[in-house]
Amino acid sequence: MEYARLGEHTRCVRAGERLDRTVGGVTTPIHTAAAYMAAPDVDGAYRYPRYNNIPTQLAPAEKLAALEGAEAAIVLASGMAAISSSLLAVLGAGDHLVLQADLYGGTHRFLLAELTRLGIGYTCVPDADAASLEAAVTEKTRAVYIETPSNPLLRIVDLEAVAAMARRRGLVSIIDNTFASPINQRPLDFDFDIVVHSGTKYLNGHSDLNCGAVATSRALMAAVRERAVNFGQTLNTYDCYLLERGMKTLALRMAKHNDNAMAVARFLAGRKGVAVVHYPGLATHPGHETAKRQMRGFGGMLSFELDCAPQAARTFMDRLELALEAVSLGGVETLACFPAVTSHAKMTREARLAMGVSDTLVRFSAGCEDAADIIADLGQALDAAGIA
Ligand SMILES: Cc1ncc(COP(=O)(O)O)c(C=O)c1O
């Protein structure tokens, strides 16, 4: 079936499936074999789990390709596997990379610890508009990398402008689309070259799996696949099964995440004791107009800064009952955390504050529970902490 023409709920449920007609089951079976007698399949390679070409791996990969509108996709062992294989697919010793500064902390660690060791230079740009990113481009620059909405401040970068700049300057454009998911944002439609995901988050959606994914053109995928195979970034067959199952409800879940986050953002924006709410769906958000142009939903993530001492913020977190204090995001259960002591804990306090990540900034992943229950929980915790 030609899934690209069908609706996105249909693509979530059916695209990529590898049904076993011999027994007639309606789900892709978990193929446990690590050795296959069949003839060469993907890219002429024999089936082998590390080559990422066994049916259980191909099913969620093709589902993602159908959702992102990509020629090719691959599922990998983690979001960091997706990020590292994509960056190393396009960069080599002596090359230079331009990035948005406001990125997931693990990506920063990869730059510092790995790119530097490999002799790859990079520049992080605080204001990630196309002109500022372009100003950092040198004759050695090969790629530009962004994350929008960004973690944890939900900053919005103009996809069309950055992709056009990259095309003009001959750069490969890469985006971490984890926060939006392909349901809310399809960067390839805006001419981006490579989309990476932490599939641990919305793609799987049930907080029970660590995985990643890349979606891109066939030509670029050859280089990404080569890195993933050589570095052994395989996603095991059982996790592929879970990922494919999770993705079947991605569009359904994202609709609920979007609605819940919007309701929570509106509640917090009207609540005393909340200094600022970062959510691209609010008209007050600086990236709102751009987000409206490039996103079909504003997502399930928001962050907000409490107008109180760190101790009161701690009490607020302790008093949450429905929302669980945990790192990670994008699951059906509502999660909250302080980026200052989690994702950004390795930064100096000064650098963190300069980025806008204060001690009382709360990152909030609105789950799929009832919005009224999430809001009531937030309200009672704010009251209990005396934040008003
Ligand atoms: C935006 C973003 N990208 C990438 C990653 C890394 O993903 P993983 O932990 O699956 O390697 C994370 C993890 O939190 C993330 O939030």
Automatic annotation (TrEMBL):
Gene3D superfamilies the record matches: Aspartate Aminotransferase, domain 1 (3.90.1150.10), Type I PLP-dependent aspartate aminotransferase-like (Major domain) (3.40.640.10)
Any GO BP: methionine biosynthetic process
Name of the protein in its database record: Cystathionine gamma-synthase
Coiled-coil ranges (or none): none
Membrane-crossing segments per the record: none
Recorded family membership: Belongs to the trans-sulfuration enzymes family.
First-tier enzyme category under EC: transferase
GO MF annotation: an example: cystathionine gamma-synthase activity
Residue(s) carrying N6-(pyridoxal phosphate)lysine: 201
Domain of life: Bacteria
